[in-house]
Each structure stands twice: as structure tokens, then as C-alpha cells.
Design goal:
single chain; 407 residues; alpha+beta; Aminopeptidase; 13-stranded mixed beta sheet; 10 helices
Length: 407
């Protein structure tokens, strides 16, 4: 186990657990004490039964769908999230999704603009709350479902006591149901009724000096006795200068069909995983800007793609630190270990992330990640990410049976 003590970045403080249970007990989700042994919907409706009008909000507020293809609308969503979204328990770090990242996350192929749901003031058009849904094809056991991925539930701090989150959830559910889609998947750090999978965060230091300075980690006691404690910890987390997998390179657009084939073959091992088609795979995995990095391994002789590894950038704002104002964090995304081991692929991902200037590399103990955590010196965090399904019964699975990465 890695010696650098790191704490987790689970999605915390987004929902008050006590209030959330009161709300979720009215929704088509399993009860917290229920043992789920079956598969299928908890309730069945038709589009004709779905209300045509939005749920009412206070008279000084109005519903609003930001057009995230427009810079001015996207900036309003970014500002709300940047100032009010998920923080750690000690209010030291807050997620800082970039505008480009948000546009990418909110506009997959076939997305519905009216699933980007905001509440703003009528008078000055200040955005006070937001929730998003995007369509996704997910394999749940033997069934492939067209459902909605819910993300970015955020309420302005001054409205946290106004029970705005349940209204947002009900409204986005109404809009999703109008498209004849009845299931959704979502994640939270808090415990709600009822998770079908629970994963733990693990962290691999790339810049230990900075992580210690901002309070993300602390120096292990055994290093405090050294003449040069920071030098010792840097040496402990040193990485090779070059990747070890021969033929590793950035993914290109023409790699799309081969990448889809690799992913479909590999994700079939897991009980819950995406069912990407070619267009979706290109959207989610093509390297973009400074927030998505996908590398393939090309056999030098045959030119065939044999393996894949990817990660995305999700920085955090550092609150109240005199020296640093950001934490550059890379998050493990999808990978396919065919000719190389998960350990070899992830070691190369760490090397590339280090070269790109990231401070820490985060992952969950899902897929085959458990096989490389110790060897690559990942430290166990205290954050958890719980996976939930709306209106779909699904027995609980282990983290290693989960192949779905949520942003």
C-alpha cells in the first residue's frame, strides 16, 4: 500500500442525507433495508400519464434550459458549479469542471437540450440551480437499456434549505419520461436508497510536495525523521521517464472502429457497463483539449490496436491556500488490457499524466483496478462513490463487476 496518506474526493455535501431519504422514499427506488434479488422496473407508466407542464417553482423563479453550445449560457452553468458544487467535508477543495469539459459532458450524440434543467430568477436571470441528464446505452446484466445519466445536481448555497433538489429531480424525471425513457443512473458520495454498487477512491501522488502543501495529503511519520523528508517522498513516488508499452500513442479519429471493438469485447466482462456505438465512442474517448486523454497501443508489425488506456482531467479549486489555487487531478477512465496487463497500462497512464503536469491520479476500485493499486502505490482514500439506478431493480454487485465510469 502506498505510504502517502491521501483523503478521498467522493461527491459529498451535494444532498442532505436525512432530507434526501424523505424524498427518495416517495420515488421508484429500492428501500434502504430491501434486499434486491430481481431485475426490472419498480413502476411502469406511459407517456400519456406524464404531466405536460413543468413542476411549479416560487413566483420569483423560472425554469430555464441553458444552451451549452453558446458561450454565455455555458459560462453561467460553469460559474454556478464552480462556486457551489461538490466540496470535501473540510471545505478545502471544490470541483472545477472547465466550460469545455461541461460542453463535452452535456452534448453526447443524441442529447436532448431540454434535459439541461436550470432554475433562475425572473428579475435578473441569475442561475440558482441546475441538473442535467444525457441519454446513454447501458448494459445491465443481460439487458441493454436506453436510459438517462443524471449529473451536475447543484443548488446555490443560499437556497440549500429550500428543498430545491427534489424539485429539480422531479422536473428532469418528467422531461426524461416524455421521451419514453423510464430509467436513470446516477452517483453520489452520500448513502441514499439504494446503491447497487459502492466503490472507494484511491489516489496516486504525482506531485507529493504540492499535495502536502495544500492539505490533500500529509507526510507519513517515517519520512519526518529523514534529513530531506520531501526528497525522500519524491523518490518514493518517482516514475520512469518514458512509457513502457511499445507502440503507445494518442488515439486518432480513424481508430474509432477498432476502439469500439476493443471496448465491446472488454466491457462484456462486467455486469454493468456502457454499450458504446462508434459515434459515442468517438465522442467520449477522442482526445480533446486538455481534459480527455486516450492512448492506444498499436502493434508495430501488424498495425493492429491491441490495448487502450484513458483518463480525464477534473481539477479542483483550492480554497484558502496562499501558494496554490488549484489541484490538477487526473481520473482513470476506460481501458482495455489485452496484450498488456492493467498494471502496465496504468503505469504508462501515470507517466503521461505526470508529464502533462497533473498533481494526482485518482481511480475507483472498479473493473480490474484492484490488480494494480498496491504495485503502483495508490493510497486508499476516505471517499466513496455509490452507484444508483432509478426505477430499475438490480441486485448489488461488487466494485470489480462494475465497468461504468461516471464523470
Amino acid at each position: 500500500m502506498a505510504e502517502l496518506m491521501l483523503f478521498g474526493r467522493g461527491k459529498k455535501k451535494a444532498i442532505d442525507p436525512a432530507a434526501a431519504h424523505e424524498f427518495w422514499d416517495t420515488q421508484p427506488v429500492p428501500k434502504q433495508t430491501e434486499k434486491v434479488t430481481e431485475f426490472g422496473p419498480l413502476e411502469e407508466k406511459t407517456v400519456a400519464e406524464v404531466p405536460q407542464e413543468p413542476y411549479p417553482v416560487a413566483s420569483v423563479l423560472e425554469w430555464w434550459c441553458p444552451d451549452v453550445t453558446k458561450e454565455e449560457d455555458l459560462k453561467l452553468v460553469y460559474t454556478l458549479l464552480n462556486e457551489n458544487y461538490v466540496e470535501d467535508d473540510d471545505s478545502i477543495f471544490r470541483f472545477d469542471y472547465s466550460p469545455a469539459f461541461l460542453r463535452w459532458a452535456l452534448t453526447p450524440p443524441g442529447y436532448f437540450p431540454d434535459w439541461h434543467v436550470g432554475v433562475r430568477t425572473k428579475k435578473d436571470k441569475t442561475l440558482l440551480a441546475f441538473i442535467s441528464g444525457v441519454p446513454a446505452n447501458i448494459r445491465l446484466g443481460d439487458a441493454s437499456k436506453r436510459l438517462c445519466e443524471i449529473n451536475f445536481l447543484c443548488v446555490h448555497k443560499r437556497l440549500r434549505s429550500k428543498r430545491m433538489a427534489p424539485i429539480l429531480i422531479k422536473e428532469v424525471t418528467r422531461r426524461v419520461n416524455l421521451k419514453d425513457i423510464w430509467q436513470a443512473v446516477y452517483t453520489a458520495g452520500v448513502e441514499l436508497p439504494k446503491a447497487f454498487a459502492t466503490c472507494q477512491y484511491f489516489h496516486r501522488s504525482l506531485n507529493p510536495e504540492k499535495l502536502i502543501a495544500i492539505g490533500f495529503s500529509r507526510l507519513p511519520p517515517r519520512y519526518e525523521k529523514l534529513k530531506d523528508p520531501l526528497g525522500g517522498i519524491k523518490r518514493a513516488y518517482a516514475l520512469p521517464d518514458k512509457p513502457g508499452c511499445n507502440g503507445l500513442r494518442l488515439m486518432k479519429k480513424e481508430d474509432g472502429p477498432a476502439v469500439v471493438e476493443l471496448l465491446q469485447s472488454y466491457t462484456s466482462e462486467f455486469k454493468v457497463a456502457p454499450a458504446f456505438d462508434g459515434e459515442e465512442a468517438l465522442h467520449w474517448l477522442m482526445p480533446q483539449g486538455d481534459f480527455v486523454y486516450t492512448y492506444v497501443v498499436e502493434n508495430p508489425s501488424t498495425k493492429m490496436l491491441t490495448d487502450l488506456v484513458s483518463f480525464y482531467s477534473l481539477p479542483s479549486t483550492v480554497i484558502g491556500n496562499d501558494k496554490y489555487n488549484d489541484l490538477r487531478a487526473a481520473y482513470a477512465y476506460y481501458y482495455v488490457a489485452k496484450n498488456h496487463s492493467p498494471t502496465a497500462l496504468m503505469r504508462d497512464a501515470l507517466i503521461m499524466a505526470k508529464q502533462l503536469g497533473f498533481d494526482v491520479f485518482n481511480c475507483l476500485n472498479m473493473m480490474h483496478n484492484g490488480t494494480f493499486l498496491d504495485e503502483l502505490k495508490f493510497g486508499q482514500g476516505d471517499g466513496y462513490l455509490r452507484y444508483y439506478l432509478f426505477n430499475w431493480k438490480f441486485p448489488q454487485i461488487k466494485p470489480e463487476q462494475l465497468g461504468l465510469v461516471m464523470l
